[in-house]
Each structure stands twice: as C-alpha cells, then as structure tokens.
Amino acid sequence: LSDVWRLVCSTGRDFSFYSHPHDIYSHIDMILVLHSLVENIAEAEIGYQFLSDHAPVSIVWVLSDEPLAFKRWRLNCSLLYDKKFCFPQLTKQLELEREVLALEKLLMSQKSDSIMDSLRYKKKFELNTILTQKVEYAMFRTRQRYFESGEKAGKLLVLRLRKLQTSRAIPAIYDKQGSLIYSSKAINEAFTSFFKSLYSSESKATDPDFQKFFCKIKLPKLREEDRLRLEDPITPDEIKAAIKSMASSKAP
C-alpha cells in the first residue's frame, strides 16, 4: 500500500494534524491504496482543520478505460433463496439423522438384533457416506491447489505470482528529467529506455579494428604431445584411482 498524497504531492509540504500540547504538526492522516491503483489517482489534497485537530484528506480517482484482464466468477446470490437449489443436498442427510435418532431411542427401550443391524449397517453407513463425501470435498477444495496443481501453470501459480507482483510493484519513479511518474505505462517505458541505453555499446569499432586488435594478442596454444595425451583412452588404473579418491557412501 502507498500513501497517495506523498506520491502525488511529493515536492509539497503539508500536515494533517496539529498537537496542541506539544505544539507540533505531523502527517498522520492518509489514504492508502494498492500500488496498481496509484496511476488512476489524479489529485490528492489535504484540507483545513475546521472541526478538529485533524484535516480531511481527499483524492480524485479517475476510472481506467482499459478492460480488466480477467473476470472472477461469483455465485448468483438469488440461487440461495431457491429451496430446490439448496435443500436437496441437506434433505437426505436430515432424514438419515432423524432415522438414526429414532432407531437409537428404540434400541434403548428394546434390544433387537434387527434394529441394531438396521442402525449400524444401513442408516449409519449411509449417513457416514454423506459426511465422508463432505469431508473429502472440503479437503479437496483446501488441498487441491497443492496436490493437483503442483508445478503446473494454474490458479495456484496465478495467486502466488499475484502476491509477488503486489509486493514487488513499483508505484512511482523519477524519470530523466527528475519528474515523478506513477503511471504503469510510463514506468515501463522509463525502465525500457534506461536498460536499452545501459546495454547499448558505445564502441564504434569496425571489423578491421577487431581483427587488428586480436592479431596483436599472443594466445597460448596446446602442444601436439599434450593434445595426443588428452585424447588417449582412460586406463583401468586411472579409473581405480578416481574411485578411491571419491568420498565413501556417495554415489558417483
């Protein structure tokens, strides 16, 4: 997050609070926005202290005309008021819970193997199956990003990169003229211009100049006997010596 007023009015000097006991001014009232939204701020102003020791801080936010890069899916809230949409999943579970409770009360009053079998192997089994499916789905929603996505370029990677982009965002920089810019497009152009000039060669030498330069350099050459020795096949004694020089209990 960035303090908008300090970015927009970087050369100005103003305060938003006055302490009467200490007789000092300070800037403690601010509007914080995401780095990605700084370029949409057109104006930022600290007002006057009318009613309290604090001055109001105001901004002018201009909405961007650029389309969003993505659209987040949201549930249609009107479906939550539709009983046919919400209740079918709960109806079966509630019926089984009532049947299990009734069978347990009946089993308390009279012991019966048939009631026990119906309670244990049928009703409780069905109820346990439904609850297990709910737990599995909850675990799937919680852990799917780590077990299914892995190193794939999916939603998990997008969320991770989004956090990194937010933490590494550059809200504003100074250009060559010393002016503060906080438009993402202008910032990218400034960095492009800087690195383009940084990695551009200032030398105006031609190919003959390079040939003349390298001809004066005396580079060492490999002797013929050394070349033949390097190309000789590896002997068993050399292999044994290499194995003995290795650390024990380590794979080569």
From TrEMBL:
Top-level taxon: Eukaryota
SUPFAM superfamilies cross-referenced by the UniProt entry: DNase I-like (SSF56219)
Stored Gene3D superfamilies: Endonuclease/exonuclease/phosphatase (3.60.10.10)
PANTHER family given in the database record: REVERSE TRANSCRIPTASE DOMAIN-CONTAINING PROTEIN-RELATED (PTHR31635:SF196)
The protein's name: Endonuclease/exonuclease/phosphatase domain-containing protein
Species in which this protein is naturally found: Latimeria chalumnae
